[in-house]
Specification:
Blueprint lengths: L3 H16 L4 H16 L4 E5 L2 H14 L11 E3 L4 H10 L7 H7 L5 E5 L6 H13 L2 E6 L4 H4 L4 E4 L5 H25 L4
Helix pairs in contact: 1-8, 2-8, 3-8, 5-6
Length: 193
């Protein structure tokens, strides 16, 4: 016998994934910005907390390694990985600065900073996007349906069609896979394999 809650969760997940189709133009715009950054010799910097930190690392791996096709490695860095940097900044400054300080150290006008926050209110992600703007870097956001605070700091932003964290995360994963595919196809088509 199926649990009614599991079935409802499954239906909600499918609904959020299906509704993502209404955001394909946003995904294409994000892919174009990321590819433009890479074509211009820039680096993609990604940040988030918890599951969004895992997404940042996952996406960086897809770009540096490969998604589906053999091609050159693409420069991408998850700002979530260096525990010495994270703990030093968190201790010496404030946890809200753990990504922003890294952005100020590394990002410039050729680069793109991606902030991932399901709520759109994570202080350290918002601070990273503000720092990116100060440095002249492009800004991309991934958030949920009510993430307008984060979206306001971004050149392009996906507001996943849900207000529930698990559904937002599921939509983000599919969106990232679609974006990685678009970027990779573009690079391979131009002989950047």
């Amino acid at each position: 016998m199926h649990d009614a809650h599991l079935l409802a969760s499954h239906r909600d997940s499918l609904a959020a994934i299906s509704a993502l189709a209404e955001h394909f133009s946003t995904l294409a715009a994000i892919a174009a910005r990321l590819k433009g950054c890479l074509d211009g010799g820039g680096t993609i910097y990604l940040c988030g907390n918890g599951g969004s930190a895992a997404d940042a690392q996952h996406v960086a791996a897809e770009f540096v390694g490969r998604f589906l096709r053999e091609r050159r490695p693409l420069p991408a860095v998850a700002l979530t990985c260096n525990t010495s940097i994270l703990t030093a900044i968190g201790n010496d400054y404030d946890f809200s600065q753990v990504f922003a300080r890294q952005v100020r150290a590394s990002a410039g006008p050729k680069d793109c900073v991606v902030g991932i926050s399901t709520s759109g209110r994570s202080p350290n992600v918002l601070e990273a996007l503000k720092a990116a703007g100060e440095r002249g870097a492009a800004t991309i956001g991934f958030t949920g349906a009510k993430g307008h605070e984060l979206a306001a700091l971004c050149d392009a932003c996906l507001l996943a069609p849900s207000e529930h964290t698990p559904r937002i995360q599921e939509a983000h994963l599919l969106a990232w896979h679609l974006i990685c595919d678009m970027v990779e196809r573009g690079i391979v088509a131009e002989g950047g394999a």
